[in-house]
Every structure is written in C-alpha cells, then in structure tokens.
Amino acid sequence: MKNQIRIKDIAKKAKVSTGTVDRVIHKRGNVSPEKRARVKAVMEELGYEPNIIARTLASRKVLRITVLLPDPAIDPYWELPNKGVEKAWQSVRHYGVELERFYFNLFDQDDFAKKSAVALKTGPEAIVFPPVFLKAANELLEECARRRITVALFNTELSGENVLTYVGQNSYQSGVLAGKLLGFSMGQTDRVAVINLSKEPANAKHLSDKAQGLEDYFESQGLGGSNRVEKVVFEEFENKAALKAFFLNLLKTQPELKGFFVTNSRAYQILDALGQEALREIRIVGFDLLHKNIAYLQKGAIQFLINQNPVEQGYLSLISLVHKLIFDKEVDAIQHLPLDIVVAENAKYYMDREEKYTHVV
After folding, report:
1. 283-287 and 257-262: which strand pairing?
2. Which residue, of 64, 145, 263, 266, is most buried by count of CB atoms within 10 Å of its CB?
3. Are 212 and 172 in contact (CB under 8 A)?
4. Domains (ranges, CATH) in the chain?
C-alpha cells in the first residue's frame, strides 16, 4: 500500500499543492507551520514514507562514522560491542556508510585523548564511543559540539550538546538489582563488598552509580545501607599474586563478608586468583557473558551474572546514527537495555542468542 501512495494523493487530502508536499518531504523552501503540520499528518495517516534510500544512493552521499573503542586485545569484554558495531555496519554499508575504528588503551586516559585527536583529523560526521574516562570524554564531547559531529554513546551515560543517543543499561538500577539478588541470602550480620577492579575508578561514573544503587536498595529494605557495604577498589587486578593476597586478607580480616558485587566483567579474575574453594561461602554477582565468567557460573562459583547486552549496545549505537543522519528518523535520546539475570540454568540460551545476533550473513 505504501508504494502506491503518490504525492498528489497527499496534496489532495491535505488540501495543498503538490509543490508544497514536495517541499515538506525534501525540507526545501518556505512552508507555513500550519501547512507543514497538515501535510505531515496526512503522510502519517496514509503510511507514506519518502524513498530516502533511492535518493541517498542517487546522490552518492557518504556518511563517515568513527568508532573509538578500548582495545579488545587488552580487555576481551570490548570484543562484544565491537561485534555489534561490525554487524550494524555490514547491514548499512551499502547506503554509503564508511566506518573507521580506533582502539585505545583502556587503562591509559592519555592514550584515549591521543586516539581521539587522530580520529577527529579524519573528519567524521559522527562518532561512537564509550566514555570510560570522564574528564577526557567530556573534552571530546565539547570538541564534537564545536565541529558539529553527532555522537552516540554506550556503556556510560553522559550528556552533551551533540549527543544523539545513549545506549546501555541504567547503571544505578543494575546496582539496585545486585542488591536485591544478594539481599535474599543475607543473615543478620552479613555484609557485602562492592568491588571495583578498575584503574582510575574515580573516572568511571557507571561504577560509582552501581555502588550507589546497591547501597540505596539496602537502605530502602532496612538492611543497614552503607553500614552493611564494604567498598573495595583494587587497581592491580592484572597482578594475580597481588590480587590473591589482597582478597585473602580481606576475607580474613572481615569474615562477615558473605557477598561480592563485582561491578564490571572481571569477576572471573578473583576466582582465577583465589580458587573456587576459598570463595565457597561467598555469593558473587558479576557482569557480562565472558566465557570465563560463564564457566564459573556453571560451576556454581558465580551465582548471578547481569548481562549488559554489550553486543546490542554496539549495534544500536551505530544503527541510531544511520537512522538519524541518512533516513532522518527520530531516535530516542536514551535507549536503556533490559537487565538480564543470567544463571547456570539459562546461560546457554543467552550465549546462543548472542551467537545468532552477531552472525553476519
């Protein structure tokens, strides 16, 4: 039906000239607000969509998108959103979308700034990146605003003049969920450790939001709030011996700790360092479907994983830019993804779903 709708059909129903309809569709010339609204209402009523794809291909317009990502060779988590970006690009590249990726060191804010500068020199119309460094990310957003570069963010939510959309979870609510999962099994004197295995965690807003969400949940449920929570920051997580010594001492000096909430994808590193037996009395809630996390989940060493849907984050971030900049479609400023609770019994379903989602034909 949509293909049979003609401009003159819209003009007749809206009681305007075909020239007016043409100007509304192509956003040319002066059309009064009243006529523009009338034409758009008729277009929506009839289900008419202009053939933007044909116009784009005919004009040979190229949309240059740059993606800034942490190097997956340093942290395997980032291969997941990278897969999502690749799937999205494969589905839209024939519309004239050019993609260039730059990888930075997740543990080096200066490297992020350097790679950002290099990326800007390529003259992109749009940039996708996770703002893992708060200060440097805000500086990049300011520069994008000056250059009128459209931005899509994922993983961590920030605001900015040229930010089209944020795709990801509500970090605060994921902390609330972790609190609920751990709170079910807490005794009268049990405590929980919120664990940040991250370098420069003060720069990572999503980590602090998760911790706050858990604390607030405990407070709301009469579980003691911050009095029942131990905040742990450990930046030497790549040093297995140091990691083991630190956590063995933590468990020895604070035997009332019965739950760990690991605020990123590195729960497996604690288990790798200490061994499953040392943590048999600790209930662990972590994030993300990395293979090592899944292996410990299936062994019962990790009780819950919160899936942040990183593949979909990458996919939707790039697709949103294409929808707006090529097809001129409205895009939600915030696209919160669901908080999936993954346990041993349903892990295979989520892994199979992810495999199908990233498969590129």
Report:
1. parallel
2. 263
3. yes
4. 2-46 (1.10.260.40), 59-168+310-336 (3.40.50.2300), 171-307 (3.40.50.2300)
